[in-house]
Automatic annotation (TrEMBL):
Family per similarity comment: Belongs to the peroxin-16 family.
Compositional bias of kind Polar residues: 104-114
Subcellular location: Peroxisome membrane
An example Gene Ontology CC term for this record: peroxisomal membrane
Species in which this protein is naturally found: Pachyramphus minor
Protein's name in the database: Peroxisomal membrane protein PEX16
GO biological process: peroxisome organization
């Protein structure tokens, strides 16, 4: 229960961090904006370190709480329950084709209907439940250090921003080195479950964000990205509905810390 509470608070922080940053900047200006950024990142780091070191939660997932699978949580249709209790067959096997189809008596309502056989649905639900209930992979000393680097990277980046300023390359390089080092140390870990492998892939893909983070974006990426989006909007039919709003959105996106570095 305490571990679940920590995950809940961590999820709440990740949901409100952008709103808190923008609202504080609107009310108290830049000083208040950076204060709330530091407080939120500090709270997230403390919660994640507690989960890692005290509760042995292993590799931290994002989002911390798995979204609810409504298909899996959906109760059986009352008619299905009656059919099961009365012993009626839910499927019919064709005599010539040997195809398994659902019988008319066990057809659920339109909201809970699926297009597979009951056996396929039961197998998929049991497989999802097994994946969700898999315990985290135990981390050794090297992997614990790697995960700690990933957790404390935002705090170190904010500290470096305060020391060297936002226009310096040192915070950008420090953050990149910490991210790459964490992934390199975690790559030696074997026997990861499916969710942990997906999380490592997500972190690897997020390295592309360094192309959109200042000062690299301001000096190298901005002109090339805008040129590419403009060419797509002008010469590819239909793409302009997406690329033109994206071109207008990029400057605003660049100003939000949690969009870039959170």
């Amino acid at each position: 229960l305490p571990q679940q509470k920590l995950l809940t608070w961590l999820s709440v922080l990740e949901c409100v961090e952008v709103f808190a940053e923008m609202g504080t900047a609107r009310v108290w200006g830049e000083m208040g904006r950076w204060t709330i950024i530091v407080l939120i990142q500090l709270a997230k780091a403390i919660l994640r370190l507690l989960l890692l070191l005290w509760y042995k939660a292993g590799i931290q997932m994002s989002p911390p709480i798995v979204p609810l699978n409504r298909e899996q949580q959906q109760p059986l249709h009352p008619q299905d329950t009656e059919d099961n209790s009365s012993g009626k067959d839910q499927t019919y096997v064709g005599r010539r084709s040997s195809r398994v189809v659902r019988s008319l008596q066990s057809t659920p309502s339109l909201q809970s209907r699926h297009w597979g056989s009951p056996q396929q649905r039961e197998e998929s639900q049991s497989r999802r439940a097994e994946e969700m209930n898999q315990p985290p992979t135990p981390l050794g000393l090297q992997e614990t250090i790697a995960e700690s680097l990933y957790i404390t990277r935002p705090l170190l980046h904010l500290l470096s921003l305060g020391v060297w300023g936002q226009r310096s390359w040192k915070p950008w390089l420090l953050s990149a080195v910490l991210d790459i080092s964490s992934l390199s140390l975690l790559s030696d870990l074997k026997d990861l479950n499916r969710r942990e492998r997906a999380e490592l892939r997500r972190r690897t893909v997020l390295l592309l964000y360094y192309l959109l983070r200042s000062p690299f974006y301001d000096r190298y990426s901005e002109g090339r990205i805008l040129l590419l989006l403009r060419l797509l909007a002008d010469y590819v039919p239909g793409v302009g509905f997406v690329t033109r709003p994206l071109m207008d959105y990029l400057p605003a996106w660049q100003k939000i810390y949690f969009y870039n570095w959170g």
